Structure formats: structure tokens, C-alpha cells
Amino acid sequence: MNKNLFRNLLIFFLIVLILSGCFSDSKNQQKLPDLLTLIPDSADVFIKIIPVKSEIALKLESLGLVDIKDIDNTIEVDLIYSTTENFTGQILYEGLSEAYFQQDVAVKLSNAQKYLQDTLSGAKLLIYDAARPLSVQKAMWENVKNSRYRNYVANPDRTSLHNYGVAVDLTIIDSNGMPLDMGTPIDFFGKAAGNYDEILILEGLITPQHSQNRQLLQFVMKKAGFYSIPGEWWHFNACSLYEAKQKYNIIE
User: Fold this and answer.
1) CA atoms of 240 and 247, how far apart (whole Å)
2) pTM value?
3) Buried (b) or exposed (e) across 166-183, using 16+ Cβ within 10 A?
4) How high is the pLDDT of residue 36?
5) Which DSSP helix (H) or strand (E) runs through 62?
6) Same domain for 146 and 22?
7) Cβ contact 225:110 at 8 Å
8) pLDDT tens column, 15-56
9) Can you list the positions of beta strands (E) in the chain?
10) d(CA 226, CA 71)
11) Is 183 left (phi over 0), alpha (psi -120 to 50) or beta?
């Protein structure tokens, strides 16, 4: 950090302390110049800003889940349920910007990233959704339970693998940071989102290039130990629901 900028910031915070009454008496005010001289112009000063984590992030960490960035910081994260840009139109993860998983699942994702980078230079995984509290699952279900889209969201009574931190919604971005065209956006409620590429191509719902991009995602994820589901090209599970219930606690 520029040393003059640091000194200016120090002066600013000292003034704030003075105005707030922390330096209200004249004796303390006379010491203000002495405090400034403690930071010489030639000093090398480094400031590390530690971000304040959201309540949901702290909760997930308390349950033993890990931030994918702590395992592999080359994987990109853009949680769609932390914004209104999702099928509910609501913010469901207030203040959350990190993608959390069970430790072994995070390691598998790191392996998938390595397989991807070995296959397509400069490409990266981009995570859209990770561990999901059951309370959020219920909010999603309320949004679709009386609609024709109910089959696209897991009933919270049966739970989703996201609720155990062992499922991921993701795509691939190229070396320019642009998502590969998969034929539909994430959370597309329709036949074109399914994993029936040959049929979808014949019906004109996706193109061979869309299929090629999807197959790349399938390849690296399956090689890392994940498996897909029929209706969503973006969704991958690290284990079965039965296995998840045996190994992990549900995220309330």
C-alpha cells in the first residue's frame, strides 16, 4: 500500500476517534501528533483486509463443511441463489459468496478441475450452487410445488443431495471467463436441459456443439467420481442419497 495513503487513512481514523469522544479530553488531543510520528515515512506497511463472513457461511463452517476456495482457489464461484437472478426471483443465500462442500467432495471437485485444465487449456469450473440448507430447499419447493415445474425441485420431505453438501451445480468457463454454451441456462425447466443429447439434437433442441460442451463437463466430472442426473446437464452428485444419509448430517 502507498505509504502516504496509509498515513492519510491513519489520520482519518484518528479524527473519527476524536469526534466519537475517544479523544475528548485535551490531554489526549495533545498526544495526537506523537501518534502520527510512530509511523515514519520510510516504513514498509502491509494491511491485510479480512472479510466478514455471512451468518450462513459461519453456520456451514460450524457443521464441518469447507469452502472450495480453501481446497482449490482456481475454481470460480457465482452462486445464483445469492442474487435474484434465479428461477425464484429471490435472494435465498443472504450475503453468501462462498461454495461449501463436504471435505471429500471438495477434493473431488479439485480433481475435476485438474482433469479439465489438462483437457482444455485455460478452462475452469464455475460453481452456481453448492451446499444448500434445508430451509432454502423448502423455499424453492414452495415456489414450484403447485406448478408444472415441481419435478425439477426435490421435495424437502425427501431432501436433496445439496442438503448434505455432496451435490454441485456448475458449468465450464473458457480462458476469457465466458461460460461455454450448453444450449440452455442453468435451472432451465424444459426438455432441452436433459442429458439425452442424441435425441435433443435430432429434435433441434440443442446443437452438436452444445452436446460437445456438455460431454466435456460430463467427462471431467465423472472421471473425478461424480455422476449426473437425467434432467439437468449442470447437476452432479458425489454419492447416492442413501450414502449421504449414512455418512453426513443434513444441513438444516
Assistant:
1) 11
2) 0.79
3) bbbbbbbbeeeeebbebb
4) 45
5) helix 55-62
6) no
7) no
8) 555 555 544 444 444 444 444 445 455 555 555 566 688 999
9) 66-67, 76-77, 100-101, 124-129, 167-173, 227-229, 232-237
10) 17
11) left
> Domain for residue 87, yes or no?
yes
Contact 138, 90 (CB under 8 A): no
- The x, y and z cell numbers of residue 63, run together, are 457443521
Per-residue cell: 112: 475435476
Whole-angstrom distance, CA of residue 60 vs CA of residue 143: 24
User: Using one digit for the tens of pLDDT, what is the confidence trace for 239-250?
Assistant: 999 999 999 999
List of E strands, 152-245? 167-173, 227-229, 232-237
Angle between helices 103-119 and 208-223 (to 10 degrees): 130
User: Strand order in 76-77's β-sheet?
Assistant: 76-77, 124-129, 167-173, 232-237, 227-229
- Identify the CATH number of the domain in which residue 73 sits: 3.30.1380.10
The mean of the pLDDT values for the chain is 87
Burial of 228 (0-12, 13-18, 19+ CB in 10 A): middle
Report how many domains make up the chain: 2
Residue 135 is part of which domain span?
55-247
Q: What amino acid occupies position 138?
A: K
Residue labelled with grid coordinates 469450473: 125
Length of the chain: 252
Residue corresponding to grid cell 482519518: 12
The x, y and z cell numbers of residue 151, run together, are: 419435478
